[in-house]
Amino acid sequence: MFLYYIYDGTFEGLLTTFAEALPHQNQVAGISPTRDLQPDLFTEIVEITTNQELSARFFGYLSDHFSQRTIKEIGYCILAEERGLELIVLKYLTILLQRGEALKGAAHHPIISKIRSTAKRVAAEIHRLYGFLRFRQLPNRLFYGAIAPKYNITGLLATHFTARFADQLWLIHDTKRNIGLYYNGQTCTYLQKVELPAEIVGVSLPPHGQEEQKAQFYAESEINYQKLWNEYFQKIAITERKNPKLQRQHLPQHYWSYLVEKVDSK
Amino acid sequence: MDVFNKLQILAAAAKYDASCASSGSSRSNVSRGLGNASSSPVGICHSWAADGRCISLFKVLFSNYCIYDCVYCANRRSNDLPRSTFTVEEVIDLTINFYRRNYIEGLFLSSGVLKNADYTMELLLLVVKKLRLEHSFNGYIHLKVIPGANQELIREAGLFVDRLSVNIELPSEKGLQMLAPEKKRDDILTPMKYIGNKINSNREERKLYKKALAFVPAGQSTQLIVGASPEPDYQILHLAEQLYQKVKLRRVYYSAYVPVNSNPLLPTMTFPPLKRENRLYQADWLIRFYKFRAAEIVNAQTPVLDPDFDPKSSWAFRNLDFFPVEINKANYETLLRVPGIGLKSSQRILSARRLGTLSFDHLPKMGIVLKRARYFITCQGRFLEKIDNEMLIKQKLLAADLPVAKMGQPHQQLSLFEEV
Fold first, then answer.
1. What domains does chain B contain, in order, with CATH numbers?
2. pTM of the predicted model, to two decimals?
3. 8 Å CB contact between A145 and A173
């Protein structure tokens, strides 16, 4: 008999699933947040109810057994939200628990290399967003940054941006998932659903889409600084060294819609 | 003139400075002000310009007026071009507002020389001090030292900035005499040595007193122009090696000369020597990270880098008796010498072979590229492709770089009677 686990799509839900599934790891046929499987004769569907206490306990168990680096890698893989990756993470946990963390050195092992490459892609996107996120100032001092990352990493941006912009109000908005981060000058909060906080009055969020349509939502000086930046961006390039291929390689088109300097050239 | 026009002139005038690094500083946002220069150990790039160079810092000149007339420089006194000077407040306002929108990691401020070196240096210092003290700005600041400026000004600047750099400009004293006769080599080397010593003594000081202010926490760098004067790569790389060893520079930047002026003293060229610049950077990496000595890469017998092959491959061709390297036995330093195997690949090989013997099947799965390495390594004593003739390896490598015929354009058999 094979087991197919269905969980609610949350991080805690997945940890609960891992805790439940680990004793039966040889029978697990799949883990997924949706019921997209046609059950066959040999597969039993197990629906997991998220258990906060169990998931916290399981996380503690992992932290006791693995280095910070491995924990981070596993977390990144979960946030990648890739179909079918839950099962690979479970297999990864199994072999590391059975044979010790040193096994990670076997970089050619298919599961270890899959986890490594996935975690690397997620880490790369976090680093890219540190650079490519752009704030646009709305009236009332709020700096608004819209993003649409491939992976679900908005929560992981909090430490970086809080340390950096400690004296301004800002809102980072993942428009793809409608989640966000809001910093009120004191603390940063994770928003399950993006709505403007009550203390911000007289402001509405600019819609996605054309830059001209958004412009009326910005603070007065905002357009001016955007113009200055665009001009700077043009002038800093050395014409004799023009290299559009290299530029595209570093600056993938996927992120152009964020960038003040590239938004019109798509 | 309004800020927009000034920015046009002074950004364009600053573009020939190569450095844009924002890495390696320890300055964190302790004051709960704006900015955090210590957030990423590798630095953060915010954009890439049309020339493919990264934009990390707001790189700008304070002024493009200059009392000097250096032959290679676009801003030389005798060039007729629009000129302008920012006010201190203008630079600060642009820096702060660009930073707040996450366009930049900080400021890279340089300037043409106004009146004299001290006067200019004082203005630059004023910008930096106001940013730090009045605006509690903790972003990254890279400040150019004006050659000939007073040591006291340099010392004070070092306490507020993350990186200082003095441009060495031309790789030899002869080149400097020819192309920048008004600049003295000593005016460049003296501050460089001074900053180097100061960084060292500051490090000792901070071991004893944790609260002592950091002096230039992200270190010192320099830049030299490649191709404006006749020095061979051999001379350039030896100079770089000495700068790394003796003055403990963090980086040497090589800037392919862009023909901005025409002058009988300058070489005539249409394109900047980009390939040469690229090879110099590769050689520089070998010196800094791969434990190569400059004399192994270029020397009196081979004074220039081969444009067709990277410097590590060129070294390997000259030292074929060093190879093959056995993947399962060689130590870290030896693995680093194999063309195509880098720092990460070497590490990965070391940790993987602790768990079992490695074969050629394993290497690509570990993310190790065999394009170049295959001719220089063995696994369990066996070659993947044994060629011990330098010319044949070179041919194979060059062929591997050729673009593959595009799909949809089938190869056609040539006819004897048609002209190709």
1. 3-219 (3.20.20), 322-401 (no CATH)
2. 0.91
3. yes
